[in-house]
From TrEMBL:
Gene3D superfamilies reported in the protein's UniProt record: P-loop containing nucleotide triphosphate hydrolases (3.40.50.300)
PROSITE patterns: ABC_TRANSPORTER_1, ABC_TRANSPORTER_2
Protein name listed in UniProt: Macrolide ABC transporter ATP-binding protein
Annotated GO CC locations: membrane protein complex; plasma membrane
Record-linked CDD domains: ABC_MJ0796_LolCDE_FtsE
Amino acid sequence: MAETVLEVQNINKFYEKDKPTEVRALQEVSLKVEKGDFTAIVGPSGSGKSTLMHILGALDKPTFGSVYLDGEDISKKKLSSLFKIRGRKLGFVFQGYNLISTLTALENVMLAVEYSGKKINAKNAAVDALTVVGLGERLNHKPTQLSGGEKQRVAIARALVNKPAIVLADEPTGELDTKNSQDVIDLLKDLNRKEGQTFVIVTHNPEIAKQCKKIIELRDGKIVAKN
């Protein structure tokens, strides 16, 4: 039986709750992410994809419902107390890379280790992570010296460096051309297959989504299909 890494049960997210302008971003959403999954979350603009990703990543809390990470209900914790959980158990890859321009690739990845508070050698872990993503020869390059695809690889290394239970990727190919987009997805698939790394990817690109093992479709804040 597969191990459940992340589970949400009947989560709802309302903005301006109980007011005439109330927005129901998510309604009664339930899903499981199991160890080794490679899952896409898809849906039109305004469907609730980003809201769901923020809740899965402990960046926001549901109005109602429960969120379990490695069996622990984190939905009732204060946002301030979730910082350490994110650093230790979750990895993030964003559309815009979010690299610090004045730091080298190595330093950007080391920073994730330092923020996590893990008692590991930050430099050695960062070198290993960058080597895994094919940037072992680009350790001392700054973001301005890297291509878009290389910058996203640095971001992936940063997400992997603390060996998280799950990596959440929000439109990871959104700023890349077709070739670099496919290269990044091939890398994620390779990491999933060889390392057993669990991924959840938000994407609007059907060509990306169909390469995932599972697809969850959102519409108007509700899951309308799973396959």
